[in-house]
Amino acid sequence: MRFHVLTLFPEAFEGPVRHSMLGRAIQRGLLSVQIIDIRSYTHDIHGTADDYQFGGGHGMVLKPEPIFDAVSDTLSPYPTRDRHAFPVVLLSPQGRKLDQQLVLELATAPGLVLICGHYAGVDERVRTHLATHDISIGDYVLTGGELAAMVIIDAVSRFTPGVVGAADNVQEDSITSGLLQHPLYTRPSDFHGMTVPDVLLSGHHAQIDRWRREESLRRTLENRPDLLDSADLSLTDRAFLAG
Ligand code: 6GU
């Protein structure tokens, strides 16, 4: 998977993307993350990437030309067929809210172009004539699209074969299966009087599976009842939730 990020703040990506699991995947050649400074596509000596908005009002708007030129340059090395399959994602609070289904959809592409918005916003022609997707990561406002781009890079990378190990099987993600994950414990079994539930130490696998299922159901009901509508629930699950 190849990520190409257009940003006014290239420094923001120096640490985060190269650390940990993603850093190792980059070193192993499974992923690449190219950071493109939008300002390097400006033509005046001040590197002006933004301008006043037509119609008046507070806040500067990112100009279209540097962004169109940067995307065009970014895609030019790819064969025409791949260029058409390449999502060009605008990150903005006006976009469709990211969820695991959209992550999976993006993960099927050969790569992604991620455009980080800033200031009051981006010239609308970027959204209507350049971007194929407009994505928000949630109902809150960030100062820019950089953190949102990193969220997408992280979530999409998990679906690139080899990035996460078998132990972190992406098909078994609790969110993919529709329920929140059950509680996890490791040693010691008694930590300053905070003990591990007996059933987990019992060796009774059927009882352990039932306990985990019920804890998942309890947690989902408490924190994300909306997920229960589309979860695959057995009659036993329904009885537990009703009780
Ligand atoms: Cl993609 N950008 C900004 N600026 N704020 C956001 C967002 C994106 N997603 C949620 N809030």
From TrEMBL:
GO MF annotations, alphabetized: tRNA (guanine(37)-N1)-methyltransferase activity
GO biological process assignments: tRNA N1-guanine methylation
InterPro entries: Alpha/beta_knot_MTases (IPR029028), tRNA_m1G_MeTrfase_C_sf (IPR023148), tRNA_m1G_MeTrfase_TrmD (IPR002649), tRNA_m1G_MTases_N (IPR029026), tRNA_MeTrfase_TRMD/TRM10 (IPR016009)
Keyword terms of this UniProt record: Cytoplasm, Methyltransferase, S-adenosyl-L-methionine, Transferase, tRNA processing
EC nos: 2.1.1.228
One GO CC term, this protein: cytosol
Top enzyme category: transferase
tRNA methyltransferase TRMD/TRM10-type domain residues: 1-229
Catalytic reaction(s) noted: guanosine(37) in tRNA + S-adenosyl-L-methionine = N(1)-methylguanosine(37) in tRNA + S-adenosyl-L-homocysteine + H(+)
Pfam families, A to Z: tRNA_m1G_MT (PF01746)
Compartments where found: Cytoplasm
Function: Specifically methylates guanosine-37 in various tRNAs.
Assigned protein family: Belongs to the RNA methyltransferase TrmD family.
Quaternary organization: Homodimer.
Protein name in UniProt: tRNA (guanine-N(1)-)-methyltransferase
Organism annotation: Geodia barretti (Barrett's horny sponge)
